[in-house]
């Protein structure tokens, strides 16, 4: 999809059309989740700090992300994909691989199918998509990015290597801002350079990954489209306006993130057997720790409890650290809820029910949310956690704030 998050907002709000739009928070530490095509000529792009994007384009309009809108649009888009083939492998909420080999007798060749899909997406969602048609996944992915927005790039099998050769090495999966300068210093500037390199040289420079890079750069990608694969992880992270300096602040942040991850696990029908915790310090040092669980979970309490066991391994002593970002990820995913223990004390069952109730409320009453008392106290200045305090639940609502 083309500038998916920004395009959804422009579609739903006519006042945003034709204007530079940045999706994300207004905090100086927020990052741009998406930049509309009107904002991109100024140098704005996704993953850029919001403050930097606004310096480049001061007249840009900042809109808050709306996951519900994106998910609904995504469902409509993927429904279009599945009209043409059941072999759909989602890469993200707005991108997928489709194997249409067996669909050609019904719908025509790959180019014809790509055009039909693009037309259906435009008609059904009022959004545009770009497509790459190629004999393998890597070449199709690269092709789909080259003529955005509303692009269609076709690469026949016999042209795959020549098509890739002049492209910069940054087009290769896994080669980003940190790896690219190192490779360029070694003499690799294009995918053609990687394709023509000796296997032992790339293995020396890139390790065991070297041979895969060489094959991909030659347009050789044997991977099949995997429509039923389970997501690798589900995560949530946040960069804070002010650094966290106490263990209690970190704990509350992780509780918020655990709750968001639990809700997504429930919504997408997964349970997790591993919890990964990420901490980024004020000097941008990034550390991660993971906790294997005895059995799969999908509730906030279990995820947060596992995350808390890692804090000693981060060396978080009050006043001796400054944390700018924390994150939680649920990994080792399996489809379905966790199996009930033979000697379950009921806690896990209650936890699962709580998540289900919270999800049902959020779905039925847009803008409403159930939060734990500890989460509320993190947002109320001067409120302290005291031993023996009464458990309570508060319902917060944007609708109430608007006077409805």
In brief:
The protein has 17 helices and 13 strands.
Percentage of helical residues?
A: 25-40%
Average predicted local confidence, pLDDT: 85
Q: Helices and strands: which structural class? A: alpha+beta
Return the string of H and E elements. Answer: HEEHEHEEHHEHEHHHHHEHEEHHEHEHEH
Q: Please give the largest β-sheet.
A: 4 strands, antiparallel
Q: And the CATH topology of the domain at 233-401?
A: Dna Ligase, domain 1
CATH-wise, what's the superfamily of the domain at 233-401? DNA polymerase, Y-family, little finger domain
CATH architecture of the domain at 233-401: 2-Layer Sandwich
By CATH reckoning, the class of the domain at 233-401 would read: Alpha Beta
Low-confidence blocks of residues: 341-345, 381-404
User: Strands of the largest sheet, in order across it?
Assistant: 8-11-9-10
Q: What best-fitting shape do the alpha-carbon axes yield?
A: globular
The span between the termini is 35 Å
Amount of beta strand: 15-25%
Number of helices: 17
User: Cα-atom Rg, whole angstroms?
Assistant: 24 Å
